[in-house]
Amino acid sequence: MSLLSPKSSPLSLHPSTASPASNNRFPFPLTSIRVSTLNHKHSLKYSSNRSRVSLRKRIHVKSPDSDTAESVSDSSDGSSSSSTTSFLSFLCPLLKLFSGGDPSQERNYTLEVATSSLSTLARLPWGSRSLFENLNNQETTTSDPPKPLQLYEFEACPFCRRVREAMTELDLSTEVYPCPKGSVRHREIVRKIGGKEQFPFLVDPNTGVSIYESGDIVKYLFQQYGKGRSPSTGLLESTLFTGWVPTILRAGRGMTLWEKARLDPPSKKLELFSFENNPNARLVREALCELELPYVLQNVGTGSQRTKLLVDVSGFQEVPYLIDPNTSAEIGDYKKILAYLFQTYSAAAT
């Protein structure tokens, strides 16, 4: 969500029932609702417009209850705000220059963990614990919907980070489709579904909703899966002030596709036990993004009802923990995970 957009601005959503991997045509009708309706439970009302919209450099979506049109650029990576887009356009090449080169090479892990830990401190109140940790002990089921959520994002994006923090608080797992700069797969899917390359982008097959704008996504997730809870204090407002700190401290890691990454995706999604603000897990998520590897993100923040599942599969409660069903590998040490990922999913390994 653009941090400067008015609450009454129209929100575009696209009902989706098909898996992104199985359907390349995406014949979705266009619907739109007002953002303000997201603040009221059970108040979502959809009004379909069956006419097809030509999507070029810009799209204009007509609101069903307004004579004004919403104009959205397809070049934004975190907000439709032109100022944010311009800042990202300047920041991304600059960070790439200082990113430390080839991510597969030997790293200074003392420095890596130090910058990641400072990133954690910058976002300390958010993305570390589940808001459901005080639920009655008799309730042991997770908060996940029947069909997995699908999140298109890239690790270095501060607005994508806001959504991942919310998912940690809501104890939600999701399918993550990384969309780094230079993406060869997932950015094209987002264009076909939503009409533009803007991130984050959420697809919820349980409700048929697809949605841009991080603030709107967070409000939607809490309304749909929050069991009456609200985002932790400052989650939405803080991104503008400290959300950029991890991006800068990590010098843009998790932003650009590794030039030696395999072009073909693995047949099965990897699985990562993580939570947003864990410094070691952040390093692994950066690598998954740079390799454009789709994976199931199992959020295990403090108090998560998913902790027992982690203990059952790994024998301990520490994250990150990676499971690769394509090779039957299960790895719990972040250094070994990084080495494994870049060795296994480089173009040279095929």
UniProtKB/TrEMBL annotation:
Domain called GST N-terminal: residue spans: 147-229, 268-349
Chain positions covered by the region annotation Disordered: 1-20, 46-82
Highest rank taxon of the organism: Eukaryota
Compositionally biased residues, Low complexity: 1-16, 71-82
InterPro entries: Glutathione_S-Trfase, Glutathione_S-Trfase_N, Thioredoxin-like_sf
UniProt protein name: GST N-terminal domain-containing protein
Species for this entry: Salix suchowensis
